Amino acid sequence: MRVILDQGPGGARVLALGTFDGVHLGHQALLKAGKEYARTHGIQLRVCSFDRHPLEVLRPEMAPAQLTTAAEKERLMASFGVDELQLLHFTREMADMPPEDFLKMLRESVDLKAVVAGWNYTFGKGGKGNADMLRQDGAKRGYDVIIVPPVKTAEGEVISSTLIRENLKQGHIAEAEKLTGHPLERNAAG
Fold it and tell me: How far apart, in whole angstroms, are the C-alpha atoms of residue 171 and residue 190?
């Protein structure tokens, strides 16, 4: 797997969008959907994420401890068949980018064939970009959009990085690892 800092080489790609902190079962569903599309169409899967949690820039006092280190995230992405991991440098300027400009940046970075995102993925200034905007842009610009629904626990809770952090905070390490589907490093949030 190749790691790309900021912008990388283009070509036909499926872009999977998200923060992917913890690379939990919900993220894995998204990666599987992206990999399936990429395999079916004979193209590469690129995960497009950020080099830090956006809250580290927007509200540092509220930034959560990361569940996975950069190295662990890279290893996990490779294990799920990701071809490229693109880490955009998250800055105040990027945070202030209108969602339409963020989409334009993505479209111009590759020959965009599809975007895969979670049901609650937001982007652009104020998080105003969402699944509906992705669908509209895809229909207008000619790329497929796959929105992955939430993955839930047996009890009906949506699996999220926040839920995993809460389990770790309460000392429920086995439950947290069940939600990630893999062991967490000892320095994971908690």
Answer: 8
The rounded average pLDDT for each run of 10 residues, N- to C-terminus, in the chain (190 residues) is 76 95 96 98 95 89 89 92 93 94 92 96 93 97 98 96 95 95 69
Give a yes or no: residue 125 inside a domain. yes
Determine the structural domain holding residue 45 and report its residue range.
2-150
Q: Please report the pLDDT score of residue 43 as a whole number.
A: 97
Q: State the maximum Cα–Cα separation within the chain, in Å, rounded to a whole number.
A: 48
Domain membership of residue 42 (yes or no) is yes
Residue 189: predicted pLDDT:
53
Q: What is the pTM of this model?
A: 0.90
Q: Is residue 185 part of a domain?
A: no
Give the other-Cβ count within 10 Å of 5's Cβ: 11
Which SS3 state, helix, strand or coil, does residue 12 take?
A: strand
124: CATH: 3.40.50.620
Q: Is 22 part of any domain?
A: yes
b/e per residue, 46-82, with b = 16+ CB within 10 A? Answer: bbbbbebbbeebeeeeeeeebbbeeebbbebbeebeb
CA–CA separation, 189 and 173 (whole Å): 11
CA atoms of 110 and 12, how far apart (whole Å): 6
Instruction: Look at the chain and report how many structural domains it folds into.
Output: 1
At 54 the pLDDT is 87
CA distance 25 to 182: 9
